[in-house]
Amino acid sequence: MSGLATSIVLATSVLLMLLWGKSHKTHSTSNDPALCRQIIAGVLKHKTQSNILSPHQAKAIANRHLPIAFGIDNAFTRSDSIHTSMFVEKVKPMINLSAEQWHSVSEFARVTTNHWIEHSFPGLDHSCGNSSHKEQSKVRNKISVDHNCIKVASLAQILSLKIVLWQIFDQKTQDKTCDESLLKLAQSINRVWVSSKVKSNDNDIPKFEGDVLLQTSLENVFGKHDRPEDNPLNLILPSFETMWRVVLRTFLEIKFASGK
Ligand SMILES: *[C@@H]1O[C@H](CO)[C@@H](O)[C@H](O)[C@H]1NC(C)=O
Ligand SMILES: *[C@@H]1O[C@H](CO)[C@@H](O)[C@H](O)[C@H]1NC(C)=O
């Protein structure tokens, strides 16, 4: 009798779990580019059901961790289309460059990178060296100059961030001494980006208010801001966070995969 009861309870539990799992399947994954484009555009229909969310609402829900982790308020986190249109109108001219302007950007990137390679790269954690390297950099004081060792990921991060400053924030003269602050900012953004993505529970999302390191590194470059809508990260996240990974991948492909 108790065996039968147990079986019934077990079977019911399994059934409930299956139903629960089905109704709570919020993630779609696919290798089909056409399907992926539909998901990104927020127009994927599930069988006969139509979307009850607008594309902006859907995007805002998927990005709800970003205002908490970065204190931002932009087109990717708002659900209203008016704000989004204003954001797009503001950003469009910033990235609509002529061929000559693209050339200036690439020249700036080339000159900056050459300078790092020939002089010094703003190193922070020196983790590619061992303890004796660390001792050497202590002796040399402040920034370590290690001609043999530049972390490619750091280079891709700081270079992408410098281009964002140049292009989006119109900082055409950039003080070399602020490179180290930029690298700190890039590393803070990446740290928070990764940890805000892996959290499954909303309560575990890292909080911008409590993150002194991220706030300080942001202030060192951009000064203080009061409201989330004035947060420089509103523009930096979309222009930098994915871009530096593309830059790194491109560098690796050209340098290593092509065998050149
Ligand atoms: C980009 O700039 C060019 C030249 O200034 C202009 O003709 C074109 O309409 C702009 N495109 C967009 C999408 O704003
Ligand atoms: C650290 O570097 C020094 C020379 O730069 C080398 O002699 C030593 O073996 C290295 N130690 C380790 C643990 O790699």
CA gyration radius, whole angstroms: 24 Å
Average pLDDT, all residues:
81
Strand residue percentage: under 5%
- How many H/I helical runs? 12
Distance linking N and C termini:
74 Å
* Domain tally: 1
Topology (SSEs and partners):
Layout: H1 2-23, H2 33-41, H3 55-62, H4 65-70, H5 81-95, H6 99-118, H7 131-140, H8 152-167, H9 179-198, H10 212-222, H11 233-241, H12 243-257
Helix pairs in contact: 6-8, 8-9, 8-12, 9-10
One 2-acetamido-2-deoxy-beta-D-glucopyranose binds at residues 92, 96.
Explained architecture:
The chain has about 260 residues and is an all-alpha fold. It has one domain. It has 12 helices and no strands. Helix 8 (about 150-165) packs across helix 9 (about 180-200). The longest helix is centred in the N-terminal third of the chain and has 22 residues, at about 1-25. One 2-acetamido-2-deoxy-beta-D-glucopyranose binds near residues 130 and 132.
Structure, briefly:
The protein is mainly alpha-helical.
Features:
12 helices; 260 residues; binds 2-acetamido-2-deoxy-beta-D-glucopyranose
